Amino acid sequence: MLQAKRDIGEREGVSTSDRVRVKALERENRELRQAHEILRKASYLPRRSLDHRFKP
Q1: What does DSSP assign to residue 11?
Q2: Stretch 6-27: mean pLDDT, rounded?
Q3: Highest taxon of the source (predicted)?
Q4: Dihedral sign for Cα atoms in the order 41, 42, 45, 51
Q5: Terminal-to-terminal C-alpha distance of the chain
Q6: In angstroms, rounded to a whole number, what is the distance separating the alpha carbons of residues 26 and 30?
Q7: How confident is the model at residue 43 (pLDDT cuts 50, 70, 90)?
Q8: Domain count, the chain
């Protein structure tokens, strides 16, 4: 009942739709950070192996 009042604006607090949106954004942010870390590590590996391969 309290959450329903928040949803229709009769009570202060975070609405259900805002709560769902924040959770989705947090999940997306976490996934993007993980992907960024993977790409950062992957971009380092080829340079290192290429440098080693082409040394005279």
Answers
A1: S
A2: 94
A3: Bacteria
A4: negative
A5: 75
A6: 6
A7: confident
A8: 1
